Amino acid sequence: PTYPNERDATMAAMMGVRVSSGARSGHSCARVSRSSRSSRPSRVSVVASSAGHLSSSDLTFKGKPASSTCVVVLGPTGYIGKYTTRELIARGYDVVAISRSKSGIGGAGDEQKVRDDLPGATVVFGDATDKDSLKKAFQDIGKPVDAVVCCLASRTGGVEDSWLVDYQATRNGLDVGLEFGMSHYVLLSAICVQKPDLVFQKAKLKFEQELVDASSASDGKLTYSIVRPTAFFKSLAGQVEVVRGGGPYVMFGNGELCACKPISERDLAAFISNGVDDETYYNKILPIGGPGEALTPKQQGAILFEKFGIEKPFYVTPPIQIMDVVIKGLDAVAGGVPENKSLGDA
Fold it and tell me: How far apart, in whole angstroms, are the C-alpha atoms of residue 240 and residue 79?
């Protein structure tokens, strides 16, 4: 469906309805218009516009047909990783998904579940936090790798988890990928690294810089695309049922400390995939959000109350400082529970 205004579109997306900007495919996807092949990173602000997902057999990677291009996805079982893997498959790439043998929260998913969730992909198993394990997984692919798409993210955001996953596992993906012929690395990062206060932000930013430096030193042999998305609609949709049921809308402080343009998982997956086949995305840091004006948490809550016909909005506004307590708690959990010392997926 299409919507007459941004408020209706936002509401629909928060409730899980696929939002269209009027594109022929019924989907909105961001695009970049400027081209740059220099080794210096170009920071390009990008917002979603009308552009459909690509599924043409004519797609190429550096002049090579998509069907002959081996693209490895790290973190293929996660929220964004799964959509990205499916998008790359739909575009005709030879997709290899590298997953832990026990994936998902608490290792609930076994090897067969991973294969079932990713039809069309070659699935191999390894642990990106362990360089030797990851190297063995690349060996199991049995052919040269052209590009790596990294959708890894720490599960807790704690100190140990952040450095293990947001830095070391993503670094392992670069190092091992280069050993097996990779010439392009697409990194799913986060918009919040622009103001790195938390450990996971600093870990992501450290690897971003190392990726840029590696490209600069490669004499053009290594290119990259660093994707920094804003909030996902999934992260906002959790409050929909609470408000619908008469509960409060929770926001930090006065609800106006920040504003964002949430993006759907399918739009983001398409944008990440563009980082493989569209050379205008190469050697760029790419902030990406959904269409329309940025909305504060307070505005998002107002949309929900209005759409559900609730005349007296009920907000809960804990101070932002409470996050310091939460982070310390997550650090304690990450340090005390072995299974939490493992990679998560974005």
Answer: 19
